Amino acid sequence: MSYKDQIDLQKLPRHIAVIMDGNGRWAKGKGKLRVFGHHNGVLSVRDVVEAAGELGVEYLTLYTFSAENWNRPKLEVTAIMELLISTLNKEIAKLMNNNVRLNAIGDLSKLPGKCHRELLAAIEKTSVNTGLVLTLALSYSSRDEIVHAAQQLAAKVQSGELQPQDINEQLFEDNLYTGGMPNPELLIRTSGEYRISNYLLWQIAYAELYFTQKLWPDFRREDLFEAILDYQKRERRFGKTSEQVN
Which residues bind Mg(2+) (predicted)? Predict the structure, then answer.
């Protein structure tokens, strides 16, 4: 029996977040340049997006490019940005056919002009879709996101629109880039690393963490199904006892 056949569709995580790690090491292991790994990583993205949509997962958020990634060699950064543009152009028809709505979070103003325009155009075009919400975390830093939310609230206090005592968890959460989205219940990281890497730090407070040794270009739909199945076998207590949950 396949992993997919064992999944309880009534107990799917509404929101899955993924740290897509290992493209560079995958390419290096094949004697290729790092960008070769990024190109092959796109195939994994396509497979995982389709698989999540088929199951009925509502939100999928992919750590596509971190704020720290700008410090990588210029040639690699340029190649990644060009790959993003070409991928958006190639995949837009498939997103429309699969009813996928594209979204992006992060400091998008730092993206190159053409890349930024293509991204916003794709987001606008898919805004009519009602299926899976695919969010790309681009130029993203969770700490920056939290600081930005604090600044937003501080400005409202300063203007008299808000009182300090009115600030609570929900209001803070509403001012994050992910405001309006449910928090991830499952976080997947590939490549055998056991770090969060400044990704959705607030949002994953109660997420189940799943780590796999597979490098991202080798991660496919069956691997996603396996991760979801593992998630469904866990007991999510949120600070309560097993007896209280059951």
Answer: 21, 208
Q: Which domains does the chain have, with CATH numbers?
A: 19-233 (3.40.1180.10)
For the question of residue 98 being annotated catalytic, the response is no
Establish whether 21 is a catalytic residue.
yes
- DSSP assignments along 51-89, one per residue: HHHHHT--EEEEEEEEGGGGGS-HHHHHHHHHHHHHHHH
Q: Which residues are annotated as a binding site for substrate?
A: 22-26, 34, 38, 66-68, 70, 72, 189, 195-197
**pTM more than 0.90:** yes
CB atoms within 10 A of CB 132: 23
**Tens-digit pLDDT profile for residues 121-144:** 999 999 999 999 999 999 999 999
Please write the tens of the pLDDT for every residue from 36-65. Answer: 999 999 999 999 999 999 999 999 999 999
Q: Residues comprising the binding site?
A: 21-26, 34, 38, 66-68, 70, 72, 189, 195-197, 208
